[in-house]
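REQUEST FORM: STRUCTURE PREDICTION
Request ID: SP-0412
Submitted by: Lab K.M.
Chain count: 1
Length (residues): 560
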Amino acid sequence: MKKIVECVPNFSEGRNPQVLEEIKRAVLSVSGVSLLNVDPGFATNRTVFTFVGEPQDVSEAAFQAIKKAAETIDMRLQHGAHPRMGASDVVPFVPVQNVSMEECAELAKSLGKRVGEELSIPVYLYEAAAPCEERRSLSHLREGEYESLPQKLGSLPPDFGPRTYDENVARTGATVIGAREFLIAYNVNLNTKDKKLANEIALTIRENGRIKKDKEGNTLRDGNGTALREPGILSNVRAIGWYIDEYGIAQISINLLDYKKTPLWKVFETVREEADKLGLLVTGSEVVGLIPRDALLDTGRFYLSKQKRTTGVPEKVLIEIAVKSLNLASVSPFDPKERVVEYLIDQEEEKKRLTSLRVTGFVDEVSAVSPAPGGGSVSALASALASGLAAMVAALTHHKKGYEQWDQEYPPLGDRAQELKDEALRLIDEDTKAFNLFMEAGRLPKGTEEEKALRTKALEEAAQNAACVPYRIMETAVHSLSLLERISLIGNKNSISDAGVGGWMARGAAEGAYLNVLINLSSINDEPFRKEIRAKADKLILEARTLSEAVAKNVSSHLS
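STATUS: Completed
RESULT:
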């Protein structure tokens, strides 16, 4: 499986398009790297780049970008609303696919060493790459900003690079490099220009809160002289208030460090509550850079639930609800295709997928003079349609009069049906890929004994994969039948025929996928593997037949 790492460097330049273009060219000079987004801010005088690729390619692109920033940005002349310490202010690596946080931390360390040695830039490591706990925090390392560097290099020595303030360091500043989970840079808009009011909300919500003071306004300290703090409301949140002349409003600028622990909707709702206490209104929000799909899906589910609507709807609907509820397009355009990281990574692959075809195109592909897509992909499509019908009936029954006693069941049932639908859709292409890989293995050379051995091994692996994919299609069909059995009992009677159609579609999917398992097993030499898959498939098909008969019986009783 391909390893994918994301790098999200923040450069202290948001006003000079020529400089940004040069940094962009430096990133794109490394083959294998995809530049997903460039998000400049004029008032902040800062630009966030986002690119992905294999670990070493991404590291090389980051180095070239840091080098170009050092050549084109003079920190002695740089000013903006955003805190900063260097031309390449912060360079985090984020694990995306088949990469651990530990691997990203090692990537950060090796890049930091190279930047320090080859570019003579002071480098601090943070988060997962930090050498000790007190250096994990970016805000701690950046305290005092660029202006504090002459003293900081002595009191807080960098991990790599020069420890003395010279002409080169004065120009480049220092760079912070590390590894972290996905950070959402998120700004909430207020109907005021008052930076102090925005900052008051920021102090209230952010995790490290505010410094405690007595009635006279003096800072309270502990026995060691350390200032005491009053914790904020939200964990995993860093925030400051600022005024953005570009928009003519004050914002609360937020770094959401872990959206899985503190959801995006929770941040927005908390800001709204605190703004109301100050007589302010939240007028919208904006995402800086990219955002993970799950953060928006979770937000969509929250607001649908708040509206007492089912959450078992297609992904596109959840995303639309999230974007509208947070008013993400309030100060600048927000297109999920351009701002959701998974969508951007997926775009090139999407063009090649069977699921991107229209219905007529897919049917034409099936009917063409080629063995794939064939029965496996058709079975997967049938399973997806069955799950879709289950989700539809659940949605049509939610909050309907006469079905109140089961109302808590419909949203999770619909959610699960949507998950199965999406999995079955992925398996449409997986089945065709599995067949094509088997055919490619058969075309491998077999002139020498070594070539024959490699070909035999490749054929065996491809055959096993070709049997496993339709087995997974059977699993989705059986899980869908389980949902349909329940929905055929408690679903809206006016849609009960749809549950019945779903039952027969899922049964057809299971039967068709079962046939594909059997025919692929005949090409497998590994006897224990063949017996195991056959036994599991036999068990699944019996379960599918039993469940589909139960669905049919329930539907018939309703209709009669």
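NOTES: The longest strand covers residues 88-97.
Reviewed by: T.R.
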